[in-house]
Amino acid sequence: MDGTEVEVKAVRNVGEGTIVLEIESPPEFDARPGQFLQVAGTVDGERVTRHYTLSSPDADGTFEITVGVDPEGDLSPWLAEREAGETVTVAGPFGRSYYEGESRVVLLAGGPGVGPVVGIGARALADGGDVTIVYRDDEPAHEGRLRELEADGATVLVTEGSLTESAAVRDVLSRADGQVFVYGFADFLSEAHEVLAATGHDPDDAKEENFG
């Protein structure tokens, strides 16, 4: 889908410096949790684009993206100031590391990677699947969504420290089975690969997105 102007339905805080935008889905928009979109806005007269990953379980009518707001950022502060009824431009979806109906999913998130993870987790549970989530962040976002997922049957572990040095992380992953998804920055992906290999998973089989 080429760039389409769509309406912002709501903006919500979901953690320290983190917001969710609920956005109207364009006509015939078909996005799956884990895919990403190009989002554009005009900031101080300049067109600015950034990529954000879907964090809702589907895109029926509306969809959500999770945005970490960097006060020095080019687009995220502008997005945080949007109000219901204003518009943004979206294009996509893009990406190949998304949920495709797998019956068992193992989801690893670092920092902003929690966005796609809560979307995939919710979709997989709704489909009757088995969900394991390991999320590393010293200021966790989406705590409400994570509690809901846990109440619905997901295994959820939130940690602040190193994945490779955590006995709890190794214990959870050694008991988990299914398609592995990894979302986060490069250092997190490297650490995730190490702990996955140590707990019986093949990192080469993981679906992953490197945020930079």
Would you give an account of this structure?
- It is a single chain.
- The chain is an alpha/beta fold.
- The protein has two domains: 4-94, Beta Barrel (Elongation Factor Tu (Ef-tu), domain 3); 104-210, Rossmann fold, CATH 3.40.50.80.
- 23% of the residues lie in helices and 37% in strands.
- The protein is built from five helices and eleven strands, in the order E-E-E-E-E-H-E-E-H-E-H-E-H-E-H-E.
- The chain has helices at 76-80, 114-126, 143-151, 167-175, 186-198; strands at residues 4-15, 18-24, 36-43, 46-53, 62-68, 87-94, 104-110, 130-136, 155-159, 179-184, 207-210.
- It has a six-stranded antiparallel β-sheet with strand order 4-3-6-1-2-5. It has a five-stranded parallel β-sheet with strand order 9-8-7-10-11, sandwiched between helices.
- The longest helix has 13 residues, at 114-126.
- The two termini are 24 Å apart.
- The model has no long low-confidence stretch (mean pLDDT 96).
Largest sheet: 6 strands, antiparallel
Kindly identify the CATH topology of the largest domain.
Answer: Rossmann fold
The poorly predicted ranges are: none
> Strand order across the biggest sheet?
4-3-6-1-2-5
Shape: globular
CATH superfamily of the largest domain: Nucleotide-binding domain of ferredoxin-NADP reductase (FNR) module
CATH-level-2 architecture of the largest domain: 3-Layer(aba) Sandwich
Count the E strands.
Answer: 11
Order of helices and strands: EEEEEHEEHEHEHEHE
Q: Please tell me the overall pLDDT.
A: 96
CATH class of the largest domain: Alpha Beta
Number of helices: 5
